């Protein structure tokens, strides 16, 4: 492999040929992967100039695997809605940004790049973030709809439906190095925003597949609740050197162990840390003290935490899917997901609600609270229309 693991990735990232490790993995190959690997055998990996010459000979510029999208047919130069005087300038500026941030995939040589191709144009954050991201797109879709760009918003959602068809879930972003992890599951919310019968019919069975992935692949030690995770235990290619350094800080060798045992323990400890880092990236909170046992990133334990917000997202998605199935006349499926949502809500309240502090709180896999400090994520159930189980709204508000 060239971009996800292997000698080229290791040498380029360890040598810091580029200040940002993401730059290299966003560079499409000029040649077939096997040809690049063969040519690399004659390169001295310790010479940064030689590495740079090799890259220039065998790789294209970062981001050249996509290009700016044509001006959307549903875009108009003027912001189409009336806004109060205090927000006219802001809304006009946001509206003008959409054509600048819309991208389309290039069709040439898909095996030579990390970009996951899209059927429809998508919005990128800009700068070093040259691809689309899952949960970011929820707010992007809301903004596009305010700008009257309904067809553009629909295309972004249909790209995510393609992801579920191809992967069984929506990856973190449309790069191969983001596969193996997702982001907070907001696809059902995006479909709901569009309020389109045909899209709802297309999306409902795929959202069910996505929810099944979360319930299965991300099941926590507390039955019925989910946690963030990762299907891979390697350094993230886009942050390779940073992850290797974190893993090194996390490992303390046993002074009485032999070399073979030390190397084995270091490899296992590294794999654990890499999985925890990737799980934090899946959460969208990368990085937060929510996932740490101590003060440094090397104490990360994301997969030990059963988070309030993820389960609130899943509860709301189950409620949305129940409504979609009812809209489609599939009453048995609607009842099934309504019951799933009720079960999750009750379990969330029984597990997360802290009656003394009047808020929901993340717990560890043994059911104890993860930390004392409050977090905005503690209140995600309110966004999902879940009230305090003891009915003490005033107490909750007082403790905000």
Any overview of this molecule?
This protein is mostly helical and 400 residues long. The protein has helices at 7-14, 21-25, 33-40, 48-58, 88-101, 136-146, 150-167, 187-194, 197-217, 240-250, 259-283, 308-327, 331-352, 380-383, 393-398, and strands at 66-68, 102-105, 122-123, 305-306, 353-354, 359-360, 363-364. The chain has a three-stranded antiparallel beta sheet. Helix 10 (240-250) crosses helix 11 (259-283). The termini are far apart.
Structural class: mainly alpha
Order of helices and strands: HHHHEHEEHHHHHHEHHEEEHH
Oligomeric state, counting identical vs distinct chains: single chain
Nearest-integer average pLDDT:
95
List low-pLDDT spans: none
- Percentage of β-strand residues: under 5%
What overall geometry do the principal axes of the alpha carbons give? globular
Number of strands: 7
């Amino acid at each position: 492999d060239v971009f996800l693991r292997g000698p080229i990735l290791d040498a380029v990232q360890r040598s810091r040929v580029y200040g940002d490790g993401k730059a290299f993995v966003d560079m499409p190959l000029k040649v077939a992967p096997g040809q690049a690997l063969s040519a690399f055998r004659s390169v001295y990996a310790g010479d940064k100039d030689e590495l740079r010459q090799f890259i220039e000979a065998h790789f294209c510029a970062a981001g050249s695997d996509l290009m700016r999208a044509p001006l959307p047919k549903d875009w108009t130069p003027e912001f189409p809605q009336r806004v109060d005087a205090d927000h006219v300038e802001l809304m006009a500026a946001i509206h003008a940004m959409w054509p600048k941030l819309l991208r389309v995939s290039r069709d040439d040589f898909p095996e030579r790049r990390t970009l996951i191709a899209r059927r429809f144009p998508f919005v990128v954050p800009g700068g070093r973030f040259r691809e689309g991201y899952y949960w970011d797109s929820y707010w992007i879709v809301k903004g596009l709809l305010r700008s009257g760009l309904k067809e553009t918003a629909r295309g972004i959602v249909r790209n995510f439906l393609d992801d579920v068809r191809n992967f069984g879930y929506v990856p973190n972003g449309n790069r191969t190095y983001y596969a193996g992890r997702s982001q907070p599951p907001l696809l059902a919310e995006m479909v709901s925003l569009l309020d389109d019968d045909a899209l709802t019919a297309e999306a409902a069975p795929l959202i069910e597949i996505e929810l099944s992935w979360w319930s299965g692949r991300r099941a926590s030690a507390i039955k019925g609740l989910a946690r963030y995770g990762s299907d891979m235990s390697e350094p993230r290619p886009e942050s390779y050197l940073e992850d290797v350094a974190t893993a090194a800080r996390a490992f303390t060798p046993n002074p009485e162990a032999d070399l073979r045992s030390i190397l084995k323990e270091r490899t296992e400890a590294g794999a654990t840390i890499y999985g925890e880092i990737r799980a934090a990236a899946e959460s969208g909170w990368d990085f937060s003290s929510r996932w740490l046992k101590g003060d440094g990133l090397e104490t990360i334990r994301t997969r030990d935490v059963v988070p309030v917000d993820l389960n609130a997202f899943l509860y709301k998605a189950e409620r949305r899917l129940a409504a979609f199935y009812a809209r489609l006349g599939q009453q048995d499926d609607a009842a099934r997901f309504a019951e799933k949502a009720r079960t999750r809500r009750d379990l969330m309240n029984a597990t997360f609600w802290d009656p003394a502090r009047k808020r929901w709180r993340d717990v560890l896999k043994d059911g104890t609270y993860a930390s004392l400090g409050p977090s905005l994520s503690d209140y995600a159930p309110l966004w999902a229309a879940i009230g305090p189980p003891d009915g003490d709204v005033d107490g909750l508000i007082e403790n905000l």
